């Protein structure tokens, strides 16, 4: 019986060449699965036709844009997810969704092998395979670029030999991955970390230095979930898409960093995430207003760990599930509106209001009507300082006795 392989298909050179290559190497039938996570670019119908033209026995195109927005991007907002305090998990968020659909396709077609186009140097091989191990450990995994030392030159030669319906001459100097949540650019001249990024590498954002009028936006949250822009309710996908356009037009969401990869190397990455950076900034501010101090302190640690787990490919791990239970509980009162000014590359919070706010004007004000009883403060400060006072006295005694 001929084996079947489900291939994560992007429509590019590497995964197009993988179709006939896997068929020959494994004596198998290849089913191409392309997932639309809002990456834009080519028409998905064209990508499907190309997969079939390259020899796939079947090709599926799945519109997962709304699913990606609501079930992957929004949880990143709840967790204020910024890996190394900067990276909004652009690529990492899409991988578990892709894995989920690859497993479903394997079950549907009776496939025993799953294939992806990752190399052995990056994070994505781990994200794909850790996800597959959690959801379908019985499936075998083949990665041509990694397992067969498949270079670009070999891929081009093979494509020309097989006369595949794909342009093998077009070569970007960069490696680019993009989706609704953002865009990641690496390699090329960016590998010299002294080289500054040039304007040509950006696509989701305009130059923040160009003169323009500021844009003001009000984002409405309901239990942590972004639900409206400027009072107009929107679906998860539409909200992120519109905010990408508006924040991107102001040059917001550009990140140039050297990050710690899961495989142990440091890598220079340039990211764009206009909506992601704006939504997280607004959400964090609303949490400042609505979450109690000690709970907020602890949540910052949970948020950081959640982001690390997702970056490391452990979306389907027990610890992430447990952390999300805590995060979900904290969002119960994160309801209200945040106003931001979008301008010159920055999303600046200028206002916040909430019916569940913990901010009490009468306690906070220094003007007439102050409800704070300052006579209580003296005793509080004395008790709060007592442990430090006792420790200082002990240290002074030790100095005297040591002479």
UniProtKB/TrEMBL annotation:
Residues holding L-citrulline: 87, 123, 127, 175, 259, 271
Binding, ATP: 8-16, 117
Any single GO CC term annotated in Swiss-Prot or TrEMBL for this entry: cytoplasm
Arginosuccinate synthase C-terminal domain mapped to chain residues: 174-390
EC number: 6.3.4.5
Localization in the cell: Cytoplasm
Transmembrane regions listed in the UniProt entry: none
Signal sequence interval, chain numbering: none
Residues that coordinate or bind L-aspartate: 119, 123-124
Keyword field: Amino-acid biosynthesis, Arginine biosynthesis, ATP-binding, Cytoplasm, Ligase, Nucleotide-binding
Pathway(s) annotated for this protein in UniProt: Amino-acid biosynthesis; L-arginine biosynthesis; L-arginine from L-ornithine and carbamoyl phosphate: step 2/3
Enzyme class, broadest EC rank: ligase
Domain Arginosuccinate synthase-like N-terminal: from-to ranges: 4-165
InterPro entries on file: Arginosuc_syn_C, Arginosuc_syn_N, Arginosuc_synth, Arginosuc_synth_CS, Arginosuc_synth_type_1_subfam, AS_cat/multimer_dom_body, Rossmann-like_a/b/a_fold
Annotated NCBIfam families: argG (TIGR00032), PRK00509.1 (NF001770)
PANTHER family: ARGININOSUCCINATE SYNTHASE (PTHR11587:SF2)
Family, similarity comment: Belongs to the argininosuccinate synthase family. Type 1 subfamily.
Assembly with partners or alone: Homotetramer.
Designated name of the protein: Argininosuccinate synthase
Taxon lineage: Bacteria, Bacillati, Actinomycetota, Actinomycetes, Glycomycetales
């Amino acid at each position: 019986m001929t084996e079947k392989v489900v291939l994560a298909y992007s429509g590019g050179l590497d995964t197009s060449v993988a179709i006939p290559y896997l068929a020959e190497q494994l004596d198998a039938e290849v089913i191409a699965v392309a997932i639309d996570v809002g990456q834009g670019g080519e028409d998905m119908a064209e990508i499907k036709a190309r997969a079939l033209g390259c020899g796939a026995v079947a090709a599926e195109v799945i519109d997962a844009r709304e699913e990606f927005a609501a079930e992957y991007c929004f949880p990143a907002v709840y967790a204020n997810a910024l890996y190394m305090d900067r990276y909004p998990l652009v690529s990492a968020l899409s991988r578990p969704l892709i894995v989920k659909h690859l497993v479903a396709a394997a079950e549907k077609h009776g496939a025993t092998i799953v294939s992806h186009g990752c190399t052995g140097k990056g994070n994505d091989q781990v994200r794909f395979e850790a996800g597959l191990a959690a959801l379908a450990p019985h499936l075998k995994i083949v990665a041509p670029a990694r397992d067969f030392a498949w270079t670009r030159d070999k891929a081009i030669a093979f494509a020309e030999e097989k006369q595949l319906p794909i342009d093998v001459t077009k070569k970007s100097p960069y490696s680019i991955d993009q989706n609704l949540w953002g865009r990641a650019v690496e390699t090329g001249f960016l590998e010299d970390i002294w080289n500054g990024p040039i304007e040509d590498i950006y696509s989701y954002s305009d130059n923040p230095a160009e003169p323009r009028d500021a844009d003001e936006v009000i984002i409405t949250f309901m239990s942590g979930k972004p639900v409206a822009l400027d009072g107009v309710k929107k679906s998860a996908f539409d909200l992120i898409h519109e905010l990408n356009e508006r924040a991107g037009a102001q040059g917001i969401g550009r990140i140039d960093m050297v990050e710690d990869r899961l495989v142990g190397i440091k890598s220079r990455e340039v990211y764009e995430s206009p909506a992601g950076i704006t939504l997280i900034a607004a959400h964090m501010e609303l949490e400042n207003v609505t979450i109690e101090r000690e709970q907020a302190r602890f949540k910052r640690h949970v948020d950081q760990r959640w982001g690390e787990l997702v970056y490391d490919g452990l979306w389907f791990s027990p610890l992430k599930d447990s952390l999300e239970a805590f995060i979900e509980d904290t969002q119960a009162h994160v309801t209200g509106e945040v106003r931001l000014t979008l301008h010159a590359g920055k999303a600046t919070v200028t206002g916040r209001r909430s019916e569940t706010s913990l901010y009490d004007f009468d306690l906070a004000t220094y003007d007439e009507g102050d409800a704070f009883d300052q006579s209580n403060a003296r005793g509080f400060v004395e008790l709060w300082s007592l442990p430090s006072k006792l420790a200082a006295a002990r240290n002074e005694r030790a100095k005297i006795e040591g002479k």
